[in-house]
Design goal:
alpha+beta, 5-stranded antiparallel β-sheet, about 10% strand, about 375 residues, two-stranded antiparallel sheet
Length: about 375
């Protein structure tokens, strides 16, 4: 028997959220020097796989390279900050398809286009400076300099790239369009529903941790101010928390009224003043720090409810995406690069007669591990 609650939850999710993936390709400007590696290993009397010498191709001449790398890495960080993980694997982290509220998609596509344009300008600046940078690197690297290690200017346009793909979130009823035996359809829908619940829980855990991170930063900084300790307060102190308030309101995956109340509480108690207001008002900093600490203590101990039906969570199921990985590999690093793969949603064609081989279907369902397999 089909679970209508699972259908309702799936329909609500697919109408309110979309999946997105971001691909960012960044040229590292590094290269393993095999000849130098062999020389060092030989001089050290070490085994052949003891290590490798990776040289910085633009040593002492990498200002433009760092600028373009930072621009593309900013796109990656922006994507993580504005989406939530959508995976049944707790270790999935930031990679792969991520969740974005449908109402945010158009705005985020516009933001991405602007960020990509800025990154491309930095890339073009680096390409223009390439001859000069190579000349300086030749002097700085000495005998380690090898012109064949450097890409042609035309290649750099490909070695730096970013793309953003969005697609509808699959609906559990998509399985009804498949021309397969009825029992298998029910089994696959049950599997998808269970895994979707895990995905929701992981997304909420991420949002919880990111909110806690922003709150704890506020507690730390404002507490230092209230005690007269030296510290710097940036606009991001309140800006990051305001961003998380918006995330809470736009990504209430289980329609939990407690999350809306939490967002309102943070906004009214912690975001009433701009960060600059605390610099000359230590007593105000102390009051707000106390409020922030109280909220942290309340939501930090709240677990995410794991359920197979849409239920309300406790008060603060809320998070932070993984930090962007530091580029260390030579050549090109590609991160979070994957295409959205989804069974096409097409108009149902005239159904063909399907033989219901009950015994065969039962055996197939029994052989499936419904905890490990994930259809996305």
């Amino acid at each position: 028997m089909e679970n209508k609650q699972d259908d309702n939850l799936s329909n609500a999710l697919s109408s309110s959220y979309m999946l997105a993936s971001c691909s960012v390709r960044v040229y590292s400007g590094r290269k393993t020097d095999k000849q130098l590696t062999e020389s060092i290993i030989s001089q050290s009397g070490a085994v052949s796989d003891a290590g490798a010498f990776v040289k910085k191709l633009f040593a002492g001449a990498d200002a433009e390279l760092k600028e373009v790398q930072a621009a593309y890495n900013h796109i990656r960080n922006w994507f993580y900050a504005n989406s939530l993980q959508w995976t049944s694997n707790n270790a999935g982290g930031a990679r792969g398809d991520r969740l974005i509220a449908t109402g945010d998609v158009m705005g985020k596509l516009g933001e991405f286009a602007n960020l990509k344009k800025e990154a491309e300008l930095a890339r073009d600046k680096f390409i223009a400076a390439l001859p000069s940078a190579m000349s300086k690197a030749a002097a700085n690297l000495g005998t380690m300099y090898d012109q064949t290690n450097y890409p042609d200017p035309a290649e750099l346009a490909v070695l730096f790239d970013a793309g953003l793909n969005v697609a509808p979130l699959p609906d559990i009823q998509d399985f009804d369009r498949l021309t397969i035996p009825g029992k298998l359809t029910v089994g696959l829908k049950d599997l998808y529903a269970k895994q979707a619940d895990t995905c929701i829980d992981n997304a909420l855990k991420e949002m919880q941790q990111r909110t806690l991170d922003a709150l704890n930063r506020m507690v730390t900084q404002l507490t230092k101010l209230s005690k007269g300790e030296k510290t710097r307060v940036y606009k991001s102190l309140t800006g990051n928390l305001q961003h998380m308030v918006q995330m809470l309101r736009n990504n209430n995956l289980r329609n939990d009224p407690a999350l809306d109340l939490l967002a309102t509480e943070i906004e009214t108690k912690l975001l009433k003043y701009d960060s600059s207001a605390y610099k000359d008002n230590v007593s105000l900093a102390g009051v707000v720090a106390t409020h922030a600490k109280e909220i942290v203590g309340r939501i930090a101990v709240v677990p995410v409810v794991v359920a197979t039906t849409p239920v309300k969570t406790e008060v603060g199921v809320l998070a932070q995406s993984d930090e962007a990985e530091v580029i260390v590999a030579e050549g090109v690093e590609t991160d979070v690069e994957c295409e959205i793969v989804e069974a096409p949603t097409v108009e149902a064609e005239e159904e063909e007669a399907v033989e219901d081989n009950s015994e065969e279907v039962d055996a197939m369902l029994k052989s499936m591990d419904f905890d490990d397999v994930f259809f996305n």
